[in-house]
Amino acid sequence: MIDLHAAQRTLSPLPPLSETAGYRVVRGDPKASIRFEFGAAGSMLRMGFWNCTEGAFECTESGDELQTLLKGRLRVIESDGTVHEYQAGDSFFTRQGEVVTWDIVEEVEKVFFTYIRGGDDSA
Q: Is the entire prediction scored with pTM above 0.85?
């Protein structure tokens, strides 16, 4: 069992989003960090915490992901222009391959559970 309430929340910085495949920064200089509690970047199943500073970026979702915001506010904009607004306490689900824009209005932290079809199942 993994107790997320008790989990150590020291996150590690990720490479700049502007230099990451599948990402295109559209506003500001958002900086992201992550901590895996289960699995790793290429694992079929992974779970952990993710944080990002203000800014906006378009990305192709790498897996089916259930996520709950722990702090902050953001807008997720679908490729058809549909806008969803979320704040701390809200949960949402994105699908693998979906192209969305994350517009982070206020620094966010989320807990996530991701299933990557075709990922490494040796987590």
A: yes
The structural domain count of the chain equals 1
Tokens describing residue 80: 């058809």
Residue of 1, 47, 55 lying closest to 29 (CA atoms): 55
Query: Which of 76, 109, 106, 108 is closest to 93 using CA atoms?
Result: 76
Asked whether residue 14 is assigned to any structural domain, the reply reads no
Q: CA triplet 101, 102, 106: central angle to 5 degrees? A: 155
- CB environment 12-33: b (16+ within 10 A), e (fewer): eebeebeeeeebebeeeebebe
Q: Is 24 helix (H, G, I), strand (E, B) or coil?
A: strand
pLDDT tens string 21-78: 999 999 999 999 999 999 998 899 999 999 999 999 999 999 999 999 999 999 999 9
CATH of the domain at 70: 2.60.120.10
Alpha-carbon span 104 to 43, nearest angstrom: 26
